[in-house]
Amino acid sequence: MNFALIDGRGKRFTFPVNPEEVTISRQKGYDTTMILSSGEFDFAQGDRVKEISFASFFPKEYNNSFCQVSQDEFMDPQTAMNKLNDFLAMKMPLRFVISETAVNVLVFVVSHNSTFRGGEPGDVYFDITLRTWRELKAAKLAGGNQGKSSSTVNKKARVDLKEKSKTYVVKPGDSLSKIAKLELGNSSAWNKIYQLNKKVIGSNPNAIKPGQKLVMP
Length: 217
Fold this sequence. Notes:
Largest sheet: 7 strands, antiparallel
Protein name: LysM domain-containing protein
Radius of gyration: 23 Å
Strand content: 25-35%
Shape: globular
Structural class: alpha+beta
Number of strands: 11
InterPro entries: Bact_Kbp, LysM, LysM_dom_sf
Order of helices and strands: EEEEEEHEEEHEHHHE
Domain LysM: 166-216
Distance between the termini: 25 Å
């Protein structure tokens, strides 16, 4: 079993250590109305957005006895925390998956907190909260627009969950392994960058030049 967030380009971020527990909060929506001389009355509305929260840590050192990722995918804790910060700033939903379960939903990262503990140098503990994303559905309009939905009266483009490819402009002193370390958190991933940019770089992966625009995996 592993826990992962997947962005619109299909880039997968797997949490290295499984949490001990996951909390999924579901609530029913209610509209409360005050009726004079009779008091308050609750009227059921649609379900509220679900929240998913859990806590774990990013270890400084790789240990295959509890790490759910391969050593090639393993990230430095600070790089991993920066990745969560990127997710927090994103305006498009991510897909959250818990393998071997039915959890496979679109979510936003709405909060996360980091903790550094004495006696465990380098390890970063965190807790994170996700909120499920739900597309707004068009409702039918009454009156002069009978038989037409609001989507035909005021039609908007469908939300595109796919992200545009990220690019990197080569700087003086760069190498593919350096770029892979900075952008992907793993210097050994340089070959993935090279395979995507062979036409730009040419036959020699060490011959990148300042100003070249490279597509990131």
